[in-house]
Amino acid sequence: MPRESSDEQQAHMATGPALPEYGPPRVRGSRRRKPRKNTLRYVAWGALGAVLIGGGGAAYAWQHLNGNIQGTDMNAALGKDRPSQQKNGSMNILLLGSDSRAGTHGQYGKGISGARADTAMVLHVDKTHKKASVVSIPRDTMVERPQCAKPHGGTAAGAQQAMFNSSYQAGGPACTVKTVEKMSHVRMDHYLEVDFKGFQKLIDELGGVDITTRKAINDPNSGLALSAGKHTLKGKQALELVRTRHGVGDGSDLGRIQLQQAFIKALIHRADTVDPLGSPAQSYDLADTATKSVSADSELASADKLLGLAKELKGISPDRTNMVTMPVTYDAQDSGRVLPLSRASQQVWSALRHDRPIPKSATQDSVGDKSDSPVSAGA
């Protein structure tokens, strides 16, 4: 996972012989531009910062960042039995937060093997790339999980009724993508994933994120203890916040989703205060951390491709981003599970398929959007 680059690497970057720039060309006047609000640009601008360092280290830095990112070939894993690609310029990206405990020595809990899709959000970018919709899928949703190929060979059997987050454990990120596509009939053009450890490291590298709590939050399960008021959350507390469920709402995953959505807005707000080109060395450290924290589909698994994506999305701001939870109701057979509201959910997915705003009527009867989050962006 993320670690500091060595003194020798930094010295090489600072003193190496001048070579032509690598990666995307430098844009004139870019040092004077105010960074746009887009969290994906942390990786992309940081990678560009590495290029702007110049010298012999530039080639090394770019190749090093490319080598950090783990990629999954979704086309090979899923084959041709998928929804058709949209041709209107819109884009759908599945954002995953996995609960892998690998390498954490029990820091985030024990007794859990493998990893699951702890957080899943479908990011839909409209054809103008100026507006976006985010649909959170509750991890406890009971869904039909399709048969999936396992990452290292073999096949994971499908299930008529399975918790959504089990899809990752059954067949890795490709199985989660396949499950989302089956339930929504919306093709995922890309996916991006970060696990517990990577998330914490990335927030620390950013220097923390500012939030305001309207009331105290105490959750002994996640470890979060916040008084009402303004806070700057570093990595550990930020992770506790997005994992909290027992300290808010009715204690279900639905309250946690509201915290996660509020945190994303706070993260976007934090992005507006960062000048990634003001300190190229610091930008490189941030890019190094980010690229080590992220996994992606093979079409995005390089620093320059992430940079290209970030440029495409640079016009999206928080007030142009609509966040909802997939319409659900409580499972009468198990209060700890939720079931999709079929007609309302199809309204949501249909809006994404046709590149239209999600109608407010789609979520009015859902238990997922019944209360306000106790957290807001900014401090």
The number of strands is 18
Poorly predicted ranges (pLDDT <50, ≥5 residues)?
1-39, 44-55, 101-114
- Gyration radius, rounded: 21 Å
Q: Supply the CATH class of the domain at 74-269 and 316-364.
A: Alpha Beta
Percent in helix: 25-40%
How would you describe this protein?
With 379 residues, the protein is α+β, with helices and mostly antiparallel strands. 35% of the residues lie in helices and 22% in strands. It is built from eleven helices and 18 strands. The strands form six sheets. Strands 1-14-9-2-3-4-15 form a seven-stranded mixed beta sheet, sandwiched between helices. Strands 13-10-18 form a three-stranded antiparallel beta sheet. α2 packs antiparallel against α3 (57-68), α2 (41-52) crosses α9 (280-293) and α6 (196-206) crosses α7.
Short recap of the structure:
35% of the residues lie in helices and 22% in strands. It has 379 residues and is an alpha+beta fold. α2 (41-52) packs across α9 and α2 (41-52) packs across α10.
Give the topology.
Elements: H1 7-15, H2 41-52, H3 57-68, E1 70-72, H4 74-78, E2 91-98, E3 117-125, E4 132-136, E5 142-145, E6 148-149, E7 155-156, E8 159-163, H5 166-184, E9 190-195, H6 196-206, E10 209-213, E11 217-219, E12 224-226, E13 229-233, H7 235-243, H8 253-271, H9 280-293, E14 294-297, H10 303-312, E15 321-325, E16 328-331, E17 334-340, H11 342-353, E18 375-377
Parallel strand pairs: 1-14, 2-9, 4-15
Antiparallel strand pairs: 2-3, 3-4, 5-8, 6-7, 9-14, 10-13, 10-18, 11-12, 16-17
Helix pairs in contact: 1-3, 2-3, 2-9, 2-10, 3-9, 6-7, 6-9, 7-8
